[in-house]
Design a protein that fits this description.
homodimer; alpha+beta; Dna Ligase, domain 1; D-amino Acid Aminotransferase, Chain A, domain 1; nine-stranded antiparallel β-sheet; 17 strands
Chain lengths: ~375, ~375
């Protein structure tokens, strides 16, 4: 079975590595001739909007999936005329627009921040009045890693923004104070069966994920069930097939859904070593119509992103149960070039092991040290 | 770093999959244009004795290793003039000749079966007299999977063989009655550091490995130390770098070394899921001069070889913690086309899980059910 993947970055790379043992073949489409997957799989280099290239790409494929959430929905719909596309293009569409996403949460009665849609400066004052300060103005589309967001704390912030109003569809969200950011990786098969990884605690710097702890420290069964129920409703509403990530805020013991990613997700990379079946394997099992793999954890894991620079491999690999994943990209500032997963039998042992990591990882941006004591309540 | 691998079968395939996350690049040399690695790495299709092709293959490589133990020693020596070759060609040489292998064991005071070298029919009678019946005549070179062996139980067997004497250098070995077959996977780094996986219990049918249990049931610390000490002496005597497999017989609580394989080994495939660092990753770490990874087990594993035919993937993958590895080869009788690893937290749970395997695996040749209760004494 040859699986087509739209996008040829590290997520596609790790999907292919997870899929080869199951005898899946892969073909990628990516606009960049430098896409890392070129080393391990055939690749069509073309824009997502090049329909002729899309047809060439799709020829003979058993199905198409994607590893990049900003694939144009029209490209996915075009492919879906000829070959099954999972997750469904509707999921891509919902995830690409913050307003659609939050409207979906509201429809499914999944708690989320209060929000108001905006399309002009004229509507800003009334919207701010409705939600109250502080609040956050966001572009509905294509915002990522903290880009396309404006925090409004004072009437002066509102006035300043009004003078230089962004020319894009927008959404104003009430500012939420939260204790921590969490995410849940969920997977749904072609027959509707579902599986869920434990909630993960995520730490960001400059809007970019730096550290995930899996399972999330102090994870209660109640919180896990709340997250699973929210994720299940989204999976079912979208008739979803594959892995879905739901990002959440924990605020006073309750969860607020923030956004979804219709693909394997950076906060699930720990599952390669830290779970019986990884998110990558489970995404492939789901889209290929195979039974889902167990999402049970193997001990406690911490995943650290490598952004823009690489550690000394030998120094890192001297730490027991530290696992290095390089994506074959040349380092440049802000670029995700790899990740490290450190695993341990207990959260206490994990905390110790993280302290043993080389100096490279002890800088502020890696968000260490962390409090990792985990008690199931 | 680009690593050259002589041989492009499933062992090379799994080495590449283990090496990509560490950003190793690979180039393979194999005489067959059908070698499975062609899908995931560049490959030179040539005979091992084609020195021009060897030079083309070696150009720009950081080092060369092998996944096939019958690579001609001269090819390895030729390459070693220009590029580091690990394990050293001497190890290849020792492993290719049963007489050299057993002479090495004897020199290192590692218990092994009694043996006598033979080169003609004229010497057979005296050799049989020395060792006594029953005994086994084996070709010194190129025997594998039970081929090139003659069991001599009676004077009539000896007389019959004498009339049709094999035209090859031979070794006569005393027939050993043993309780079980075991193997130990050992690894040595470029600075001489060593690590050992636990002893594995192996079950063969028709001379082909069908089932490995890791750790071996009822594995005592004493037995493990005995195996590690033997493996360490071999590693050091050969100034070895990489993974080495030592096959052993357990006979009345003692170990007898049977043979070595200077490469990753079928009885170590369980380590992909069943150990912190797999044999494939550790072989690459060793040859690349990186610290060795932890050989600690994650629970209890059973590895079942798929010989000549494939199970229904969906049926197998419905079993929790069952892992399928297909090698991308078309099935034909006697051909290793994949393996399955089943893992569990305890030996009791493993035994239960093996009972749940589909009917395909419950046929006699898979050597199930097994007694897996494991007690460290």
């Amino acid at each position: 079975m040859t699986i087509g993947i739209l996008g040829g970055g590290q997520l596609g790379y790790m999907l292919a590595l997870a899929g080869y043992p199951l005898d899946f073949h892969f073909r990628f489409l990516d606009p960049s001739p430098q896409a890392p997957v070129g080393r391990i799989a055939p690749r069509v280099t073309a824009e997502y909007t090049d329909y002729e290239a899309l047809d060439r790409f799709a020829h003979g494929l058993a199905l198409v999936t994607y590893e990049f959430e900003n694939v144009p929905v029209e490209a996915a719909r075009h492919l879906a005329k000829h070959v099954p596309v999972y997750p469904p293009p509707e999921a891509l569409e919902a995830a690409q627009d913050r307003l659609e996403e939050k409207t979906l949460f509201r429809k499914l009665r999944i708690p989320t921040t209060e929000f108001v849609a905006l399309s002009s400066a004229a509507e800003l004052a009334a919207a701010v009045q409705t939600l109250g300060l502080p609040c956050v103005l966001k572009t509905r589309r294509l915002g990522y890693d903290g880009k396309g967001q404006w925090v409004l704390r004072t009437p002066e912030d509102v006035a300043a923004l009004n003078r230089d109003f962004p020319a894009a569809p927008l959404i104003l969200e009430k500012f939420v104070s939260f204790e921590r950011e969490l995410s849940i990786l969920a997977v749904r098969g072609r027959k509707g069966e579902t599986a869920f990884y434990p909630l993960v605690e995520n730490h960001h710097r400059g809007g970019i994920l730096r550290l995930s702890l899996a399972p999330a420290p102090q994870l209660s069964l109640g919180l896990q069930h709340e997250a699973e129920n929210a994720a299940r409703r989204i999976l079912e509403a979208l008739d979803y097939v594959g892995v879905l990530a739901v990002e959440l805020f924990e605020s006073r013991g309750r969860l607020l859904a923030n956004e979804i990613a219709p693909r394997v997700h950076n906060s699930g990379h720990w599952s390669i070593e830290g779970a019986v079946a990884s998110q990558f394997q489970n995404h492939l099992r789901a889209v290929a119509g195979l039974p889902l793999g167990a999402t049970r954890t193997l001990g406690h894991s911490a995943m650290l992103n490598l952004i823009g620079e690489l550690p000394e491999a030998a120094e890192l690999l001297a730490i027991p149960d530290a696992h290095l994943h390089l994506y074959g990209k040349s380092p440049r500032p802000g670029r995700k070039v790899g990740h490290v997963t450190v695993r341990a039998d207990s959260s206490e042992q994990l905390a110790l092991r993280l302290k043993q990591l080389p100096a490279f990882f002890q800088r502020e941006e890696f968000c260490l040290p962390v409090q990792t004591s985990s008690v199931a309540k």
